[in-house]
């Protein structure tokens, strides 16, 4: 068993630490998957598990209404249908996601791209099912009409320009944002120590009442015999992108086709889950040599697992591993 532990405990968490708090587990459904929260619930708050479940679900439903490419009335889908030349005022949530998406698109050289909506549509990765792979002409047209470089986003005014025919798909970043949003929601209500998970993406805030961090085991693909890796999620988030469960569903924005190379899984740790989610997607698109270069250049805490069962551990992750 390998253990990854942050270098220091955040002293601020002790201001809200309560060793007598009761750990509750609540769960639900969102974004085509499930969510769950394990929270240290101080008795003094007067909140029940049902209260917490209701406020978490309400928050998640609002995010879906904003950024789902499955809901035809979402703000994202309405933007995708908007006339060429129109400018859209985004919600605070949408604007925050777009700011991070554009930053990581640039830092990754376009490996992460929030404007892949037409490609995910023709490959059947959205609400419209397909019976066969798209033909080369259809792929080429979708690549031409998409691309994050065509988007004009104003982070101050929180507006996004629709140049015409560009479709967004934020499925590579929205879950991570939602994880952070729920952790922030809980903290705003006095629940500062919790583990939040949506579809496998997690963030750990504070500590468990017994003083331990929130422990998470990183899944190994079945093709490997790698030693287990356990992470202390103390003020950290983790996301994994891979093709060993659902097959090749990560698309390469450059070719418009599924990213097929020697990498089968990428795990990224970051202070915020929105960052971990998007970077895990970006590094999954790149072949292993390019992914390792990008990871090192951006000091990412990363593990890349190859199809031959070997792994690459980034220097930033190596620094967290206990001897």
Automatic annotation (TrEMBL):
Q: What is its EC number?
A: 2.7.1.180
What enzyme category does the UniProt record give? transferase
Protein name (database record): FAD:protein FMN transferase
Report the GO molecular function annotations. transferase activity
User: What domain of life does the UniProt record list for this protein's source?
Assistant: Bacteria
Record-linked Pfam families:
ApbE
User: Per the similarity annotation, which family is this?
Assistant: Belongs to the ApbE family.
Q: Which reaction does it catalyse?
A: L-threonyl-[protein] + FAD = FMN-L-threonyl-[protein] + AMP + H(+)
Q: Which cofactors, by name?
A: Mg(2+)
Keywords for the protein's UniProt record, in alphabetical order: FAD, Flavoprotein, Magnesium, Metal-binding, Transferase
